[in-house]
Each structure stands twice: as C-alpha cells, then as structure tokens.
Amino acid sequence: MARLKCVVKYDGSGFYGFQVQPTNRTVQGVLERVLKEMHKGVEIRLQASGRTDTGVHAIGQVIHFDSTYDIPEENWKRALNTLLPDDIYIQEVIKVSEEFHARYSVSEKEYHYFVRNLVEPDVFSRNYSYHFPYEVDIGKIKEACRYLEGTHDFTTFSSAKSTIKGEKIRTLYHASCIKHGSDIEFIFRGSGFLYNMVRIMVSVLLDIGQGRRKPEDIPILLEKRDRQQVGKTISPNGLYLWKVKYNEENKII
Amino acid sequence: MARLKCVVKYDGSGFYGFQVQPTNRTVQGVLERVLKEMHKGVEIRLQASGRTDTGVHAIGQVIHFDSTYDIPEENWKRALNTLLPDDIYIQEVIKVSEEFHARYSVSEKEYHYFVRNLVEPDVFSRNYSYHFPYEVDIGKIKEACRYLEGTHDFTTFSSAKSTIKGEKIRTLYHASCIKHGSDIEFIFRGSGFLYNMVRIMVSVLLDIGQGRRKPEDIPILLEKRDRQQVGKTISPNGLYLWKVKYNEENKII
C-alpha cells in the first residue's frame, strides 16, 4: 500500500466547491471518480487539507490517498492529468509515509485574494477577481493588515454559521496587500483559518481602504468577538488557496 | 428613430458563437433578448461587424440597432449593462447617422491571438489562451509574418467550407508577434478576414516557430491556393476580435 500526496490546482468556477455531493459537480467528486476509474472500479477516498467553497480557486490544494498500485510518481501525475477535465490539474505527486495526513499534518496555509480595482467591470476576470470600483488608500489597508497579524480570537472575522466547535483563536503569521497596476493582491499566511475568515477580513480591509473605517478599528473589532460588527462576506471569486505547508514532508525516497 | 452603435466586449467561453440560434446561448441572442426587454416586447434586430465562432472572445465587437427611444448615450450604456449577464459588457454607445452600418461600413478589423507557451497547461487560462508546450523561435515567426502582410489570395489560409463566394483576395495591413514572458501575442490587421483565416495563419506560424516549416514557405503556400497544404485550424480559445474601424464615425453630435 502506498500513500500519495498530490498538489492540485483548480479553477473553482465550474465546481460547487471541493467537498463531494450526491449530484453537484465538486472537485473531490471529480478526483474520486478518476481515482476509481484508475483502480478498476474500486472506490478510493481522498483526504484534503481542507474544503474550499463554490467559486474558490486553488493553486496549491493538497490531497492524499492510498493505493495498492506501485507506479512511479511521474506516471501517477501523467495518468491522473490524462483522465482529469481541464479545470483540474495535478501539479505534483509524491509518495509519502503513512504518517502523512493532508489535513492533520498541516502546519501553515496561505491564501491570496485578488481585487480588480477599476471603475468598469471586466468580463474576463469576473470569475477570477473581485470587482471593486471605488478609490482605495493602499497605505491604510497595509496599516490595518499589521493589526490583523498575530494571535487573536477571530470570532468577528468568521462565519457565525461556523460548525467549528471551541475556540476561535488563530495565529496569522502574515497579512499584506500589494497593488499591481489596477489589481490589488492580498496575502494571508496562518496556522489555520476559520470559515469565511479571509473573505470577511478582505471585506473589512476594503472598507478601510475606502475610508469607511479606520485601521485602528481592527483591534476594537477583534476585541468585540461579534460577527455582526462587520459587513458582508466578500465574493469567493477572488479567493485562492495558494499553498499548504507541512512540518515534515514525509517523502519516501 | 435613432441608430445606436455599440462597442461590445464578451467572454466567448459561455456562448455558441455570436450568431443567433433557436436554442443555444449566443451573443446576438442575449443582446437581442435584452433589447426586446428594453423595448417592452418589440423585437429589435441588430447588425454586427461580423460573426465570431464558439469560444472566440471580443474586446471591441461593434453592433448597431435602431430604436425609437430618445435616451442619452450614457444612459443607454447603463441600461443595457444592467440587463446584460456578466459575460457581455457594453463598452460604449454612440448615436450615429443612418448611413452607418456595423458590417458594411467596416474599413479595418484587428484580431489578436494569445498562446500560452509553457510546458504545463494552466487551468486558469484554458479558455483564454491556446496552450502550446513546444519551444518556439520567435524570430522565425516574425520573419514569416512579413510574408503574410500585403494583398494576397488567402485561399490556403481559409476554411474550405467557407460560404463566401468569389475571390479570396484580402489585404493584411499588419501581422506581428510579441513574446511577453511565457505568452505569445499575435496581432493581425486587415481590410477583411476569411472564415477561420486567423486561426489557420497562427497554426502555420506556430509550425514555423517550431521548425516544422520555414518562413519562406509562406509565399509558396499562398501561391498554391489550397487549404489542404496546411495543418488544422487552431483552437478558438486564444482568438479575440480586438477592434473594428470605420471610415467615418457617423457620430451625431
């Protein structure tokens, strides 16, 4: 039995999110159908670093599964990509030890969020970037990002519907914002993220960029631990699961 | 009665081409449905500079239609964009005289074709760029472009199924190719283009870039006037109707 770790890229536009569903097209559903096909009808259950919602993209989602096949890594990659539709692509396949778990072994996750800051909408980026037509003060957003970094209770910045029990304390190692021409790119790295956390943080950061709030509001909002204090969860279209890091690679050489 | 000229941008991925069809979703179909809605159920027939095939995009398609409404240009634009789906966008609306015709008044058309020249395919550009994983000599393509410029019989470079009767002599004012990182952009400007002409030219130019043909083959191929001499018509996904020019603006001030 071999455990395979795969780095997966997908365009979320054509999926009802990651997690398998009985009828809707999902990333996990498509991947498991292809794995079943490769294994002559035997169901193969995969584990992912986490789910992504409808419309959310991935550059470096990580999954693992177990197989009785003894195939070189490069051939796994080729075989899977041949069977997969063109909106999912396996970037890398690595044989790992059985200690590796795509979800439980995660040490850090990185998300990027893209905003197209132009007055007029763009038909070509509508699924890949959030259209925000208002003037933005990037300096203010950068200031606010610094307040988000660190270990905080992120209740204010997570979905009230969250099914996660227990504490909502997370550590954000990095939060930043860069402007490239008319695109704004947000980068977040953390030990873990709560449900909708990136989308709610970006929504508040854009409020700050627009002058509707101040950077110094961030510590006050964190303190309140109340989702009602902030505006709506921003569109999933601009969100990318960029990278997932693990403490140990667990690569088998 | 007012004649309105519109510059239209669309993402061709979600359409069965431009021309109206009884059941499939087309650009003309959607535009005419919206015009009918605006005109309280009265059918409005539009004219375009030309059709685009399934999967072909437009940055500057031009259409015209006649309306009994007397609305300022900016309001036309806003009203249409409010009713249109987010893969079609009206860039500009101008009132023109009745001499203007989106198809018959065309003086020049410009097409761009994008190629993503990377070994691995990219899930995000699959609908917007043609994936070509082989090494390319851009210098050779540029040399070949010069042979395409000018007035020639383009029979070799047009669909044999073409319904256009008569001569296939056209004037290509400009043919060029630029490399930006891993993207190759082809630019063509001409008095008119035959069916599939850009897609067949790019296919041959990539053969030349790959070393499978020589730039000097172009005049020989033109001379043969035979579609069978060249390879397949390349994918529509990389093709953009970029701009349509008219001799006179016919703008009403």
TrEMBL record, chains A, B:
According to UniProt, the reaction catalysed is:
uridine(38/39/40) in tRNA = pseudouridine(38/39/40) in tRNA
Highest taxon listed in the record's lineage: Bacteria
**EC annotation from Swiss-Prot or TrEMBL:** 5.4.99.12
UniProt-annotated catalytic positions: D53
InterPro entries, sorted: PsdUridine_synth_cat_dom_sf, PsdUridine_synth_TruA, PsdUridine_synth_TruA_a/b_dom, PsdUridine_synth_TruA_C, TruA/RsuA/RluB/E/F_N
Question: GO molecular function terms here?
Answer: tRNA pseudouridine(38-40) synthase activity
Q: Which UniProt keywords apply?
A: Isomerase, tRNA processing
- Residues annotated as binding substrate: Y111
Tell me, how does this one assemble? Homodimer.
Give the similarity note. Belongs to the tRNA pseudouridine synthase TruA family.
Entry function: Formation of pseudouridine at positions 38, 39 and 40 in the anticodon stem and loop of transfer RNAs.
Name of the protein this chain belongs to? tRNA pseudouridine synthase A
Gene (UniProt): truA
